[in-house]
Design goal:
With 240 residues, this protein is of the alpha+beta class. The chain is built from 7 helices and 8 strands, in the order αββββββββαααααα. The strands form 2 sheets. The chain has a 4-stranded mixed beta sheet with strand order 4-1-7-8, with helices on one face. A 4-stranded antiparallel beta sheet has the order 3-2-5-6. Strand 2 and strand 3 form a beta hairpin.
Amino acid sequence: MKNAVIALFSVLLITSCSKKEADKNLHITGNIKGLQEGKLYLQKIVDTNLVAIDSVILDGKSTFEWHLDIESPEMFYLFLDRGVTNSVDSNLPIFAEPGTINIETDLKRFFADAKITGSENHKRYEDFKKVNTGFINRNLELSKERFDAIRFNRPADIPAIEEKIANNLKRKYLYAINFAITNKDFDVAPFIALSEISNANVKYLDTINNSLPEKIAKAKYGKLLSKHIEDTKKLEANNQ
């Protein structure tokens, strides 16, 4: 009789937990191939600080899952604590949205080999990064050229290199602006404006902001973009 009561209690507990998980609007599942042990943190930006909102200890297994509620699509970061073997690629951005998101990656190449499915916002964010990385790499190349010109006493080369750096930056900004406007129906648009070109001329940020449909404008990053533009305009007015 005692065993029967325990078994019934266990079933009720599992059923209750399953119902609570089903009531959440975001389900994150994943697998890290090659992982034997470690701690996985789910993080997000809170008041400009990156904070952990949940964690799971992986001991002898490589799979994980989280179930939570979000008001609108939001960027999260998956941090893998490798202990003494922590590496620079242990933090993985995930642009989450309501639904089920799956993460498949590898312990050795946690960031580089990650495949994230189930989020259209994340897919578009990845598309943005592919092109944006080209501008970043080009800037690194040009910065090295400028450093070498100074190092090897070639001052005549510096103005041309600096012009290339400025043009590359301009192209980077124009790409981000165009991307945000083209993808205005997705929360990734105001996120890109905030994370990549927040210091751009406010008229460009205004153009992005004014293109957003009401649903996006009233979501998390839409409201943050509007607030940023308002604060920037006030600061510019005070400095005149």
